[in-house]
Amino acid sequence: MKSLIAVALLPLAFTATAQEWPSKPVKLVVPAPAGSSLDFIARTLGNKLSAKWHQPVIVDNKAGAGGMLGMTAVAKAPSDGYVLGIGFNGPIAFAPYMYKQMAYDPAKDLQPIVLTSSQPNVLAVPASNPAKNLRDFVTWAKKQPGGINYGSVGAGSSSHLTMELFRSAAGFEATHVPFAGSPPAGISLATGETQALFTVAPALLPLVGNGRIRLIAVTSSKRMEGMKDLPTVQESGYPGFESIAWNGVFGPAATPASVVQRINEDVNAVMKESDVREAFAKQGLVIGGGSAEEFRTFISAESAKWGPIIKKAGIQID
Questions:
Q1: Is 65 helix (H, G, I), strand (E, B) or coil?
Q2: Domain residues for 192?
Q3: Domain CATH number, residue 281
Q4: Is residue 13 included in any domain, yes or no?
Q5: Does one domain contain both 168 and 206?
Q6: pLDDT tens digits, one per residue of 132-148
Q7: Which secondary-structure segment (H or E) carries 34?
Q8: DSSP assignments along 215-279, one per residue
Q9: Is 16 inside any structural domain?
């Protein structure tokens, strides 16, 4: 009899979890430093969610280990919805192929909740480069003795892997020169230390504005809003080529389904607000959204796409 009563009460307990959450502050871990695009996303959404939840949303920056330090903190937290994180390509879809040992398994220890935004990469070259379009660039790159040097914002980053994918498709030789973030990578391009760079556009626009570098293609399937004159890699002779940097909200595995649903619905609602959409657009961010299951499916597809590329390039960081 007692067991029957317990079973009967399960739906009530499940509903109560959603109704009671959150009853205390929610921590939002950002695996990147203050001032980064991830930090901007977390603080913009956090301010809105705090008002909706009537609880503080505390942004906790835990940068390091390519984003894995922060995501480890999320994976090891109690599965009650009070510790969330903003995960991105690196520590979620790339890291399992680049590190022999990780403190967490992204597929088993983290619960995808909602895609928050994405950004395409752009291909930039020094202003002195003769290439005015992607075809010219590939022709030029193939003629360089010993190949070219290309920069990235870090080993194993979307910036790095996008060039590995492209040079494999285009058939030219290149040597990777990693930097600690967009500013030094951009300067290396402007000074001619490197000859090409894939990264997100906002980081490069000051150098474009002063005429030191030039953008010649974008890696999204469609041209970017606000940069309609910049052709895609696809339309420049490489059908099907796409590479985007993405991020989203995660919780620990076994977070109650009702709490996952509540967070998903609230983040989706916040991202539909006009001021949030405008703020994201100014940062070159494409608003995400969708269900938790759609986000999980997207991550699986990204992992399946980039795993073979990482293995082929022989990228090992530890």
A1: helix
A2: 120-218
A3: 3.40.190.150
A4: no
A5: yes
A6: 999 999 999 999 999 99
A7: none
A8: EEEE-SSSPBTTBTTS-BTTTTT-TT---EEEEEEEEETT--HHHHHHHHHHHHHHHTSHHHHHH
A9: no
138 and 172 assigned to the same domain: yes
Please tell me the predicted confidence (pLDDT) of residue 42: 96
For the cut 60, the answer to whether the pLDDT of residue 125 exceeds it is: yes
pLDDT attached to residue 278: 93
Q: Say if CB 59 and CB 33 are below 8 A apart.
A: no
Q: How many domains does the chain have?
A: 2
> Domain containing 165 — which CATH number?
3.40.190.10
Q: Which residues of 238-270 are buried (b: 16+ CB within 10 A; e: fewer)?
A: beebbbbbbbbbbbbbebbebbbebbbebbbeb
- For the entire predicted model, the pTM comes to 0.83
Q: Are 38 and 247 in contact (CB under 8 A)?
A: yes
Higher pLDDT, 298 or 35: 298
Query: Tell me: the pLDDT tens digits for 69-106?
Result: 999 999 999 999 999 999 999 999 999 999 989 999 99
Cα gap 101→104, rounded to integer Å: 9
